[in-house]
Structure formats: C-alpha cells, structure tokens
Specification:
CATH superfamily of the largest domain: Isopropylmalate Dehydrogenase
Helix content: 40-55%
Bound molecules: nicotinamide-adenine-dinucleotide
Strand content: 15-25%
Distance between the termini: 17 Å
Number of strands: 12
Number of domains: 2
Shape: globular
Oligomer: single chain
CATH architecture of the largest domain: 3-Layer(aba) Sandwich
CATH class of the largest domain: Alpha Beta
CATH topology of the largest domain: Isopropylmalate Dehydrogenase
C-alpha cells in the first residue's frame, strides 16, 4: 500500500472539529489497505501563538516543507484580535504560502444538484456547475514594488501599488492551468485587462505563445477580466479552467464561490514548484472558509469543504484521482439523500452534526466502491 507523510494543521475555531473528520477517513483508508498517511500534527494561527508566541513555529514550518502535502483547516478568532500584527493568526498562513513558494491557487466551484437552490442564481444556470479558477498567488499588484503611501506635502498623499509580472511567472501558472484542463474538459479561459494594462498585454502574449508551443491540444480562449466577471454570473457553465492574476483571481474566485451556495462546501489547493528530485509539488490544501468563531465548539460545522480539500490532495499530490472521484461522489450521494448540516439545511428536517456528516460520507464511501 502506498504511504505518504501528511502534515496536518487544524488551527483555530472549527478547525480541529472539521479536521477530525479527515483523520477518520484517513484511518479507514489505511485499514482498508488503500493508502496509508503518516499524519503529523502542528500548530498554526492563534493556537501557535498561545503555545509559542508566533503564528507558526520554525519547527512546524520545517515539517510543512518536508511533508508530501500539508492540510490546514482555519485560523483566527476574536481571542487574538489584540496580538501584534506580525504574529496575528493570518501571518501563519502567509508564511506557509511564502516559505513553500505556493504560486498557484486552485479554487473549484462545484454546484451539487442537491444544493442548486442555495445559489443566488437560478437553478438551471448552476445545476451541475464544475469550474476551476487558477489564481496566481505570489506576484502581481499585492507584492509589486514600489508599494507605499507618499506624503506630497500639500495636504495630499499618494498611494502606490505596482502590478508587475515576469514571463516565467505567467508561464508557470499557465502550465498549471493547461495541465489541469487536460485532466478535465480540456478548455482554458485566460483573463487579464490587456486593453488598459501593460501587464495584461504581456500576460496575453505569454499564454498565447505557451499554448502554441506546448498545449495546442487544449482549447484556449481569452476574456477581459470585467467581461469574465459578467459571464461568470450570466452563463457560468461555459467555463472549465479559468487562469488569471492575483488581483482578478481574488475577486473572481469569490464570485464563483457564491454561485455554489455555502462557504462550508468550498475546498482549495495552493501549489508550488515541482521539486528537482521528484515529480511532486509543494502543496497546501485548505477550505476557503475561516474559523467560524460564531459556531466553534458546537460540533455543527460543515466538514465538506475540509473533506473536499483532502480529496484535492489525493488528486493533485498523491495521484489518487479515482479515490478523489469516489470521495466526491460520496459527498454528492449524501447530499442527494437529503442529509445536511445546519449551514446548508434549506429547510431539511434532520440536521447532522459535524461528526455525523463525516460518518455519513465515510459510510457512503464504503458503498461507492
Ligand atoms: P468565516 O468563514 O469563519 O465565517 C463566515 C460565516 O460562515 C460564519 O457565519 C460561519 O459560521 C459560516 N461558516 C464558515 N465555515 C463554515 C462551515 N464549515 N460550516 C458551517 N458554517 C460555516 O469568516 P469570518 O467570520 O469572516 O472570519 C472568522 C475568522 O476566521 C476571522 O478571524 C478571520 O480572520 C478568519 N479567517 C480565516 C481564514 C483562513 O483560515 N483561511 C479565511 C477567512 C477568515
């Protein structure tokens, strides 16, 4: 049976509650002889601050870098509102992304038919939606220099951010998108604002040339980011893989998220470079949602985003795509049966706890052989 190291960071709030469901599934996979995960646990966010006075310790950062994949639940909460800025819970996430050089953020937006009525759009527009936003995560206007506020001395100030992309940054995120498309419906939509931005002109040029050189078998289209925003809410099912920069990706992935209903349903992956020694990439998998302090400790959080993140790890870090398909089918079947946690209840009469939902998915997984 294959064996991998999984570094697990439950974090704060509902984090440990939803992560517990992953440990159940991992234990079952091992018992069944399918795959064994050697799970090591660390601290991140407020939990790490309480233990070490920092948002993630150097030792845990080292473990994250050495693991085959990192699984994180969520960080933050009102308890840590007053801690110094450099050690606030989110600083743990930022350090993980930076030190692991995670330049690609993958956010699937999947609308399970059973939940289509929870979307803000009409059922027929979102029923069966399955798209993937690939956002560049370490470059662009969030990091470009100069980045400052200058005092102009006449009662005026000037705020400056710099949008900057080099060829290699666009090529490496482009490759992720084209390779993902080959495993999906073979279509990439690249998005920028080349009509008003030089970085957009370069983005368009680099993606077009990468496509012609290395991925002519994949369908490529370009859409300006504002038009794409409109199309996302007009006819979202036209998209397969969308690749875009850090700023546009930040906004468009949140728009896409809302097409699917609840925050408790949304997984994500952040990927880095392939290591020289192997074909595997540094990778961090985490739900999109936060630590939900309003429901923490009640055992009612939805574990599906966390389980979906684990499923992405199986697919993208461990080459276990078929197993990931099984987990996603188990989630879909559980929803079809009308089983719901409180956040997606939609009037359902029986509401499951976090652990009951985990058990229901595990039970379904044993059926979906
Ligand atoms: P949130 O995602 O934690 O919660 C927003 C709303 O969605 C809440 O009502 C919450 O109860 C609900 N919700 C979220 N996940 C759920 C789940 N799995 N099941 C059921 N309901 C769920 O966002 P927030 O309230 O803005 O932030 C709370 C804390 O989380 C803050 O400290 C924030 O900084 C932090 N945060 C962390 C991350 C992260 O770890 N990646 C992301 C966003 C926010």
């Amino acid at each position: 049976m294959p064996q991998y190291n999984l570094f697990v960071l439950p974090g704060d709030g509902i984090g440990p509650e939803v992560m517990a469901e992953i440990e159940k599934i991992a234990a079952w996979l091992s018992r069944e002889g399918i795959v064994h995960f050697e799970i090591e646990k660390g601290l991140v966010g407020g939990a790490a601050y309480d233990a070490h006075g920092t948002a993630i310790s150097d030792a845990d950062m080292g473990r994250a870098n050495a693991a085959d994949a990192v699984l994180l639940a969520a960080v933050g909460g009102p308890k840590w509102n007053g801690v110094p800025y450099e050690v606030r819970p989110e600083a743990g996430l930022l350090r993980l992304r930076k030190d692991m050089n995670l330049f690609a953020n993958l956010r699937p937006a999947i609308c399970y038919p059973a939940l289509a009525d929870a979307s803000s759009l009409k059922r027929e527009l979102v029923d069966g939606l399955d798209l993937m936003i690939v956002r560049e995560l370490t470059g662009g206007v969030y990091f470009g220099e100069p980045k400052q506020i200058i005092d102009l001395g006449n009662g005026q100030k000037r705020g400056i951010d710099t949008q900057v992309y080099d060829t290699y940054e666009i090529e490496r995120i482009g490759r992720i998108a084209f390779e993902l498309a080959r495993q999906r419906r073979n279509k990439v939509t690249s998005s920028e604002k080349r009509n008003v931005m030089k970085s957009g002109v370069l983005w368009h040029e680099v993606i077009t040339s990468l496509h012609a050189r290395e991925y002519p078998d994949v369908e490529l289209e370009h859409q300006l980011a504002d038009a794409l925003g409109m199309q996302l809410v007009r006819r979202p099912k036209q998209f397969d893989v969308i690749v875009t920069d850090n700023l546009f990706g930040d906004m468009l992935s949140d728009v896409a998220a809302m097409l699917t209903g609840s925050l408790g349903m949304l997984p994500s992956a952040s990927l880095g470079e392939k290591s020289a020694a192997s074909e595997t990439r540094k990778a961090l998998y985490e739900p999109v949602h936060g630590s939900a302090p309003d429901i923490a400790g009640k055992g009612i959080a939805n574990p599906i985003a966390m389980i979906g993140s684990f499923s992405m790890a199986l697919r993208y870090s461990f080459n276990l795509g078929e197993l990931a398909d099984r987990i996603e089918k188990a989630i879909s079947d559980v929803l079809e049966k009308g089983l719901r946690t409180a956040d997606i209840s939609g009037g359902a009469t029986t509401i499951l706890s976090t652990s009951q939902m985990g058990d229901a998915i595990l039970a379904e997984l044993q059926v979906v052989a």
